[in-house]
């Protein structure tokens, strides 16, 4: 499955929403979002959830976020999560 459109959108959201002083293209698909990577925190992840819901017209429940450390590990894992929630027509 090609994640490129979702990944690009997530990188843009990440940079804009969290006011990162980086070019979205400079963020690696497998770069860690927390710890040694982009060094995000729990507040950042909440902001990202809200921005993702708006960008992709989704409603993300607490139940869907049972394992945030896996979902928010990298841009790629976040894209996998978002794509699983999208209707088939939106994945094109």
Automatic annotation (TrEMBL):
It comes from the Bacteria. This is Carrier domain-containing protein. The lineage of its organism: Bacteria, Bacillati, Saganbacteria. PROSITE patterns: CARRIER. It holds the Pfam family PP-binding. Transmembrane segments: none annotated. It comes from candidate division WOR-1 bacterium RIFCSPHIGHO2_01_FULL_53_15. Residues 4-86 form the Carrier domain. InterPro entries: ACP-like_sf, PP-bd_ACP.
């Amino acid at each position: 499955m090609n994640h490129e459109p979702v990944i690009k959108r997530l990188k843009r959201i990440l940079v804009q929403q969290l006011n990162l002083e980086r070019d979205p293209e400079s963020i690696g698909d497998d770069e860690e979002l927390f710890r040694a990577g982009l060094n995000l925190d729990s507040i950042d992840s909440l902001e990202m959830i809200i921005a993702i819901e708006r960008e992709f017209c989704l409603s993300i429940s607490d139940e869907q976020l049972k394992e945030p450390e896996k979902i928010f590990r990298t841009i790629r894992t976040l894209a996998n999560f978002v794509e699983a929630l999208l209707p088939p027509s939106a994945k094109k």
